Amino acid sequence: MKKEKEIIKNILITGNAGVGKTTLIQSIISKLNVSAGGFYTAEVRDENGKRWGFKIISLDGQESVLASVEIISHHKVGKYGVDVAAMDRVGVPAVRSALNDSEIIVIDEIGRMELASKQFRNVIAQALDSPKPVLGTVAIKDTNFARKAKERADTKIIKLTRANFSEVATHIERLLKGMGIEP
């Protein structure tokens, strides 16, 4: 429960799968006049268009398969095995680099696949606690970590639907402008 009013510096978008959370993040980042660092995730589909897995892509172009139906792992989300080392190899360094070198930190997404990594949980806590703004996505289904991130007094949670995409984009651009970040 939020106790006292704090200045919002973290914006986390939530919503059902497929509503456009990553697309929205990419659209906003493409308009920014400040340096952004971090990562986003993308679906990987096979030649028949069936979702095969997910990859993680840093804003500086590093990428790796994060989860797939072919990965055998102790960490599973649905039918996907999670490669925790991929998160530690791509996502964690991307956020660390953004903490040091960027004006805004992009984290897409704080979800069960990503949270399988202890290093990731630690660097996300550092990013949320840092003075730098975070623009990210968070799973609609709460894990303990995601719930705590959503409950932070300095964090605005915005629910995205297919119907409110334009309004949410405008709202986030206004919030960023209020933080001194001009889209």
What tags apply to this protein structure?
single chain; 183 residues; alpha/beta; 6 helices; 9 strands; 36% helix
Structural features, described:
36% of the residues lie in helices and 28% in strands. The protein has 6 helices and 9 strands. It starts with 9 loop residues before the first strand and ends in a 5-residue tail after the last helix. The mean pLDDT is 92.
Secondary structure blueprint with pairings:
Elements: E1 10-14, H1 21-31, E2 36-45, E3 51-58, E4 63-68, E5 76-77, E6 80-82, H2 84-101, E7 104-110, H3 112-115, H4 118-129, E8 134-138, H5 144-150, E9 155-159, H6 165-178
Parallel strand pairs: 1-8, 1-9, 2-7, 7-8
Antiparallel strand pairs: 2-3, 3-4, 4-6, 5-6
Helix pairs in contact: 2-4
How many individual β-strands? 9
- What structural category characterises the helix and strand content? alpha/beta
Mean pLDDT: 92
Per DSSP, the total helix count is: 6
